[in-house]
Specification:
globular; alpha+beta; single chain; binds flavin-adenine dinucleotide; 8-stranded mixed sheet; 3 domains; FAD/NAD(P)-binding domain
C-alpha cells in the first residue's frame, strides 16, 4: 500500500508563509488557517478590521480543510429531518437555509474551484431507503429541493443545490486575497498557549500576538488547544483515497451512503475520490494520529473495486483529523474577554465552518451575527 498522505487536491502551487516571531499586535487574531479561519479573516477584512493576523501550526489548509472529500452539502452533520427532530423545525430550517446560501456564496467567491452538481444520498439497505424518504418528505415540506432518485448509483434521494469543490484551491485562493488585503499570515507556528489576563494573547515558540479579538478556528485537535473543551469535543481520523482517471463509470454527482459513513465523487478528468469507513474499526479512529491505516484503506479499496466497479490505479491515500461533539452541533463558544472558539463539525465542516468563521468575525466586530444566533447553544 502506498501511503504518501498527500491529498488529491494538492495539484497547484502552495503559498509559503513566514513563521511568527517577536511581539505582534492586531485588532483580530485568528488561530487556524483552514477554510473556517480563512473565512473568518476574509469577513473581518470586509468588515473593516484595521489589522488582522492569522497563525497556523503548519500552513494554509494543512488540516482537514485541505484534505477532505470536497463535498459542499446543505445542512449540518444531522440530516435535515433528524435536525428538525433534535433542534426543532424553525432552527433546523434556518440552519439548512444558511448552509444553502453559504454554498452559493462560496461558489461566487471561488467559481474556478466549485461545481454545483447536486448530491446523492444512496440507500445501502431498506432501512436507509425509508430514512431517505423521511428526509425527502421533511425537506420538501420545508421548501428545499430534494427528490426521490433511482439511477445507476442505486435508490435514494437527490439534493439539487449541493456542490463539490477543490477545498485546497479555495483556501489558497482566499488566503492570497487576504494577504493582498493586508492580513499578516504566519505558518509553522503552533500556538501552545491562549491567555486572556492582560487582554487576549497567544504564544508560539518564537512569538506572541496580542489582539482585541482572538478567534480560534480549529476542528480536529481542538481539545488539545482548548483543554476546557475536553468533555465536549473529541478528535477522530477520517481517511480517503483517489484514483487515476476511470472512463468506464460516470458519476455526475457526489454520492454518500451508509448514513454518510462512505462518500465519493468523480472529478471532471475521471479521477475518483473516495472516503469513509470510519465505523469499520471505530476504536482505532478516535485518535490524534492523521496517517492512513492499512485496515481502513483496504476497506476503501474494496468499496472502490466492488461497489463502484472502478479499476483505475490508486494514486493518493490520505487522512486528517476532525472534531466530533456529543450535541450534534459544532462548538461555537465565547470564552469571554474577546476570545471565541469554533470547531467540532462532526465530519462536515466545509460549509458550516465557513459560516461560523464569518459569524465569529461579525460578532467580534459588530457585536452581533444572525448566523451565530442559529448555531449558538440553546
Ligand atoms: C477525509 C475527510 C473528509 C471530509 N469530507 C468532508 C466533506 O466532503 N464535506 C465537508 O463538509 N466536510 C468534510 N470533512 C470535514 C471538513 O474537512 C472539516 O470539518 C473542515 O475542513 C474543518 O475546517 P477548519 O478550518 O475548521 O479546521 P481545520 O481544517 O482543522 O483547520 C485548522 C487549522 O488549525 C491549525 N492548527 C491546529 N492546531 C493549532 C495550533 N495549536 N496552533 C496553530 N494552528 C493550529 C491546523 O494546522 C489547521 O490548518 C472531511 C474531513 C476529512 C478529514
Amino acid at each position: 500500500m502506498r501511503a504518501s498522505n498527500r491529498p488529491r487536491w494538492d495539484d497547484h502551487p502552495d503559498l509559503a508563509l513566514p513563521s511568527l516571531t517577536g511581539e505582534q499586535e492586531a485588532e483580530v487574531c485568528v488561530v487556524g488557517l483552514g477554510g473556517t479561519g480563512l473565512s473568518c479573516i476574509t469577513e473581518a477584512l470586509a468588515l473593516g478590521a484595521q489589522s488582522v493576523i492569522g497563525i497556523d501550526a503548519v500552513g494554509i489548509a494543512a488540516g482537514a480543510a485541505g484534505r477532505n472529500g470536497g463535498l459542499l452539502l446543505s445542512g449540518t452533520a444531522e440530516y435535515h429531518h433528524d435536525a428538525v427532530a433534535r433542534f426543532g423545525r424553525e432552527r433546523a430550517v434556518t440552519m439548512t437555509r444558511l448552509t444553502l446560501d453559504e454554498i452559493e456564496r462560496i461558489r461566487a467567491e471561488v467559481p474556478d474551484a466549485v461545481r454545483v452538481t447536486g448530491s446523492l444520498r444512496i440507500a445501502s439497505d431498506a432501512a436507509e431507503l425509508d430514512d431517505c424518504e423521511r428526509q425527502r418528505a421533511q425537506m420538501t415540506a420545508d421548501g428545499f429541493a430534494c427528490e426521490t432518485y433511482i439511477g445507476t448509483e442505486g435508490h435514494g434521494i437527490v439534493m439539487h443545490n449541493d456542490a463539490v469543490f477543490n477545498p485546497l484551491r479555495r483556501a489558497r485562493t482566499i488566503a492570497e486575497r487576504a494577504l493582498h488585503a493586508g492580513a499578516r499570515l504566519f505558518g509553522g507556528s503552533p500556538v501552545h498557549a491562549i491567555e486572556s489576563g492582560d487582554g487576549p494573547h497567544v504564544r508560539t515558540d518564537a512569538g506572541v500576538v496580542r489582539a482585541k479579538h482572538l478567534i480560534i478556528c480549529v476542528d480536529g485537535h481542538l481539545e488539545q488547544l482548548v483543554p476546557a473543551l475536553g468533555g465536549e469535543v473529541r478528535t477522530a481520523r477520517l481517511q480517503m483515497l483517489a484514483t487515476a482517471p476511470e472512463q468506464s463509470v460516470r458519476f455526475t454527482r457526489p454520492v454518500s451512503t451508509r448514513d454518510g459513513f462512505d462518500y465519493w465523487q468523480q472529478l471532471p478528468d475521471g479521477c475518483i475520490t473516495l472516503g469513509g469507513g470510519r465505523d469499520i474499526t471505530p476504536d482505532t479512529e478516535w485518535t490524534h494520529d492523521a496517517t492512513p491505516t492499512p485496515v481502513i484503506q483496504q476497506y476503501l479499496e474494496q468499496t472502490l473495486r466492488q461497489k463502484l466497479g472502478v479499476h483505475a490505479p490508486i494514486t493518493h491515500r490520505w487522512a486528517a483529523s476532525v472534531g466530533y461533539t456529543s450535541t450534534g452541533l459544532p462548538v461555537f463558544r465565547s470564552l469571554g474577554d474577546g476570545v471565541q472558539v469554533i470547531g467540532g463539525y462532526n465530519g462536515t465542516g466545509n460549509v458550516v465552518g465557513a459560516l461560523l468563521g464569518r459569524a465569529a468575525a461579525q460578532r467580534a466586530l459588530t457585536g452581533r451575527s444572525s448566523i451565530a444566533e442559529a448555531f449558538l447553544p440553546a
